[in-house]
Amino acid sequence: MNSHIIIVKKYKVLSFLMTTIVLTGIGLTVLLEGETTNQDLVVQVISDFQTKIVSLHSLPSHAPITVDGNGNFDTSSGNWTGSGTSVDPYIFENYYINASGGVGISIFNTDMHFIIRNVVINGSLNCCTGVFQLNNVTNGQLLNNDASNNGGYGFYLNSGSNYNNLSNNIAENTRFGFYIRSNSMNNILNNNTANTNDIGLYFHINANQNIVYNNSAFNNTNYGFYLFQSSNNNILDNNTANNNSIGFYFSAGPSNNTIQNNYAINNTNFGFYAVGSANFNTFAYNIASSNGGTGFSLFNNYNNSFYHNIANDNTWGYLLSGQNHTIYNNSAYENQVGFRVDADGNTLKRNIAENNSQNGFDLINNHDNNIFIDNMAFNNTQHGFNFLGGNSFYTKATGNNASNNLGNGFVVGIIQGQMWENYAQNNGMHGFLITGIENTFNSNYAISNEESGFYLTETSQNNTLFNNTADLNSENGFLLNGSIENNINTNTLSNNKWGISVQADSTQNTITSNTIIANIVSDALDDSTGENVWFRNLYSDNVLGSLYVIPGFAGAIDPDSIPLDVNSPQISSPADISYEENSIFNVINWQATDKFPNYYLIIVNNTVISSFSWVTGAPIIVNVDGLPPGLYNYTIVVYDLVGLFTTDTVFVTVNVVEPSETTPATTIITTSIVTTTITSSEPIPSSSGFLGIFFLLAIPMILLMRKRKKIKKIK
């Protein structure tokens, strides 16, 4: 009888509980349980190797066991109990086996129900067999077993072994801790530990539709979890891979798997790595932290989906090298690069890249048709969005926000891309640095950047910029430096040092119909050596209109400039409003007009309650329903782009509603002749009351007149 203790070691990750996400105008704050951080994304990783004794301190020895077929469970030599049914399974438990260089327990070709639990096996030296081995087996349960310090596979399911349950087992210092292969499907692996093996948990060649949850793989030489040609609804949920070469590895076509709520921490290379036609997989709510390479890496595959994942403190947070991936609602912080796109046709939407040491988002190496929607890049050391894809065509970016980055908000070096409704604010260099050609910029905003709002370099050509706003930038609203053949029209450039500055050999640019006002040094400056067209722009110091001389050495003129608006906005004056409390459909309807509308304020009793932009001639409607009784002063202040404004005030009176009578109403009418009392079941409305009084007065008068006629006849 040998004395042995079975120890199950379970790796724990305690504090990835994200309780509150607060999104502010300039950054993201994630508050973890017990944390009160501000502007920082913090993930605590508290790990320990918990141990628990799961069997007796002294285990009897047993020889290796082999069962082949339903009728070969030998209840005497194998010490099995039970009958092999689902309610009375065969049970082998509480033994120590010295495998003597071979296999400890081998079960072949059976669908009988059986349980193997609390068994320790040592001494299996064969590199390519299992310590616990099931071949073509269904309905087996391996619970609380230890396959440590052996040469082959700790737990081996082979040749169509289906519907088996492996829970609370441990495999240390083996070749593969858990090896599931060759059409072994619909198995459950729960709460197992694979430590210091070559591979922790390995799913190989059509190991499909397995459920793998709450398992731990740490300190394995190669991979914590490895899916090779294993597809179709394998579910990996709430597993942990720590201190492996790669945490979770998918290769040679594993597709249609779900990988969710897993943790890849402190792995030497990648946290999650999918390569070689690993397609149509879903990665959701996973965390990749402090890995030496990329947190999430896709290479040579397509149509994978990523939702609500976190990449923290890796080299790159996410690397997309494939095509048609969907990346939604993920975050990347404190990596070198948050999201790097090196592929075609990917969609990135509502992702956040913050506090990365290089760029928030990268597009590299000549890839086409990528889409960026509503993403945010805050507080990155270099650029928010770095689209330097060389010959990358047809990139679309809309609704993205780059703020407080030390470099540029957006670097745009693409071809025939579309940039609209993006925001670049408070960046350390330019809002938009444009180096590409034939791109369209529509309705973008560059505000309060340290250099220029929009900077077109010498490599930029044939770009179209319209309806954009550059405001409060420290240098230029627009700067053209050697750029050629760009079309710049209907933009608004205000409150910069220079509104628009054209330098060096910039030539053949068309600058038309822009509003260039209230800039500090000059609205326009043309020091270029080329020929540029200025036409019908509005300038602050141009009161008369017509010909306007552009400051600078180029001697450029705007022959048909627009005069500065010197008129304040016009606004209607709606009547004051009085209504009874709890009534509805009470609104103030203002209408304002101006050539250059900007914004308006609504002030109620000296308190600003709202501020919005406005459109000339469009109604400005304010709902005043739901106010408690009282008098309210509603004042609107309407501003134009020059800063001129107009006000109007409407007084709103809310009256108290008197309670209605609940007892029958009594109306008493008195005349000099008759007193009449009328009782009604309802209060008498004002119109019916008048008719009632008329008839009540008429009846006694008629009677009185008849009486007088009778007296007269008697006389």
Describe the structure.
The protein is mainly β and about 725 residues long. The termini are far apart. It is elongated. Among the domains are: about 1-60, no CATH class; about 570-655, Immunoglobulins (Immunoglobulin-like, Sandwich), CATH 2.60.40.10; about 670-715, no CATH class. A hairpin with a 2-residue loop joins strand 70 and strand 71 (about 605-615).
Low-confidence stretches: 1-57, 663-715
Number of strands: 76
Fold-level CATH name of the domain at 570-655:
Immunoglobulin-like
Helical content stands at: under 10%
How many H/I helices? 1
What is the mean pLDDT? 85
- The CATH superfamily label of the domain at 570-655 reads Immunoglobulins
Sequence-ordered SSE layout with sheet pairings:
Layout: E1 2-3, E2 7-11, E3 18-24, E4 27-32, E5 49-53, E6 58-59, E7 61-62, E8 65-68, E9 90-98, E10 105-110, E11 114-122, E12 130-137, E13 140-143, E14 153-158, E15 165-167, E16 170-172, E17 176-181, E18 188-190, E19 193-195, E20 199-204, E21 211-213, E22 216-218, E23 223-228, E24 235-237, E25 240-242, E26 246-251, E27 258-260, E28 263-265, E29 270-275, E30 282-284, E31 287-289, E32 294-302, E33 305-307, E34 310-312, E35 316-323, E36 326-328, E37 331-333, E38 337-341, E39 347-349, E40 352-354, E41 361-363, E42 371-373, E43 376-378, E44 385-387, E45 396-398, E46 401-403, E47 410-412, E48 418-420, E49 423-425, E50 432-434, E51 440-442, E52 445-447, E53 454-456, E54 464-466, E55 469-471, E56 476-481, E57 487-489, E58 492-494, E59 498-503, E60 510-512, E61 515-517, E62 522-526, E63 533-535, E64 538-539, E65 546-549, E66 557-561, E67 570-571, E68 577-580, E69 587-593, E70 597-604, E71 607-613, E72 619-623, E73 630-640, E74 645-655, E75 665-670, E76 675-680, H1 686-714
Parallel strand pairs: 7-9, 8-10, 9-11, 10-12, 11-13, 12-14, 13-15, 14-17, 15-18, 16-19, 17-20, 18-21, 19-22, 20-23, 21-24, 22-25, 23-26, 24-27, 25-28, 26-29, 27-30, 28-31, 29-32, 30-33, 31-34, 32-35, 33-36, 34-37, 35-38, 36-39, 37-40, 38-41, 39-42, 40-43, 41-44, 42-45, 43-46, 44-47, 45-48, 46-49, ...
Antiparallel strand pairs: 1-6, 2-5, 3-4, 65-66, 67-69, 69-72, 70-71, 70-73, 73-74, 75-76
